[in-house]
User: Fold this.
Amino acid sequence: MTQDSATGAPSSAHEPGDALQTGGTTGIIGYRLRRAQLSVFQKFLSIFDGLKLRPADYSVLVLIADNPGRKQTEIAEVLDIKRANFVTLVHGLEERGLVERIPSSADKRANALHLTEEGETFLAHARQVHEAMEQELIDRLGGEGERAQLLALLDRLT
Amino acid sequence: MTQDSATGAPSSAHEPGDALQTGGTTGIIGYRLRRAQLSVFQKFLSIFDGLKLRPADYSVLVLIADNPGRKQTEIAEVLDIKRANFVTLVHGLEERGLVERIPSSADKRANALHLTEEGETFLAHARQVHEAMEQELIDRLGGEGERAQLLALLDRLT
DNA sequence: TGGCAATGTTATCCTATATAACTAAATACC
DNA sequence: GGTATTTAGTTATATAGGATAACATTGCCA
Assistant:
């Protein structure tokens, strides 16, 4: 009884060079999501290796650029980053001269976040680099239509 | 010049209660992938909280069940888990009485992995629980067709 | 005015993941 | 056949992500 291909069930024995039965995991939506996400993030990391920018850093810079003057809690919240961990993240960006924490005059507890001039320049470049990566992903998907399809399907899972 | 809705660009000022401009991040494939993956894993964790089973544990049990007698390196490899980290993972499953490490007679360095009787019973139950979750995800996607579409699109990213 | 909530921060913990080094055993090479 | 290389499992260790608790300062509000 070694008819794997018929039943898909594991045979009682295996030859040393045999491929493993992976259907039990590769059929799982969450598993495939995770693999795809890791693959895309890996590509991001390799592309942005020179700029020393991680996905979280990039998303923070983009959000600050598109919402200048917002306080830390607001930016952290939309990214689902705990404000305690956001402190370290912003601190790093500030040390690199990309972000400014300006004490809010309206609320003395809060810091208003802004990009520095250098931060604007840096992000403009990073956005170009990222745009190229995004376009490659779209190409791999098959086009804009497939990208829209994917995003719509992902939305239903969230 | 406060016509955000027309340009999508940030206005120079924001009202305290305003929603943030998030298009810069939510349009990114990798960002949406990550959010969806986190959401699905979160659901997994809450559903399997009672069984104290994490996604990685589940995938390991399934792979051992479907490929009994394989050695650690083989199972770890298909899951992209470093063999050094796999040691701890399998050790935990062994301590819980779900997995056996049987020294291979053919290769005295290797451990042949098997589920125990208890492991088989446990996994049978876990598979049922997971099947219900998977079906809910499929329903959310819209049906089997959409599931197949999603998996196909994810494949192209990997 | 006094109590409660929010902001930013520090400290700490846990988990996941990556790397290096080691042993014992198998394999390759000559 | 004996030596060198590779492989399997393991240990120790480092880093990064993310969660929680506690605290000072400030804002809110009733």
Notes: The helical segments of chain A are 4-7, 23-26, 29-47, 55-66, 72-78, 83-95, 117-141, 144-157. Chain A touches chain B through 59 residues (CB under 8 Å). Residues 1-12 of chain A have pLDDT under 50 and may be disordered.
